[in-house]
Amino acid sequence: MTLTEHAARIEALRSDKDESFKIGMVSGNFNVVHPGHLRLLKFAADCCDYLVVTVNTDRRPGVLVPAELRLENIVAISYVDYAFLLDEDLPSAIDLIRPELVIKGKEHQDLHNPETEALSKYGGKLLFSSGDAVFSSIDLIRAESDPNKSLFNLNTSHNYLNRHQISSENFTDILDRFYEMNVLVVGDLIVDEYITCDVLGLSREDPTVVVTPVLEQKFIGGAGIVASHASGLGANTTYLTVCGDDQEATDSIGKFEEYGVNAKIARDASRPTTLKQRFRSSGKTLLRVSKLKQHAIDETLQDEIFELFKEQTDRLNLVIFSDFNYGVLPQSLVDRMISLCQEKGILMVADSQSSSQIGNISRFHDMLLLKPTEIEARLAIQDHDIGLVGVAEKLARKCNPSHILLTLGAEGTLIQTLHPGKSEWMTDRLPAFCDAPKDPAGAGDAMLVTASLALAAGATIWEAAYIGSVASGCQVATVGNRPLSVDSIRHELDIW
Question: What GO molecular function annotation could you give as one example from this UniProt entry (predicted)?
Answer without folding.
Answer: kinase activity
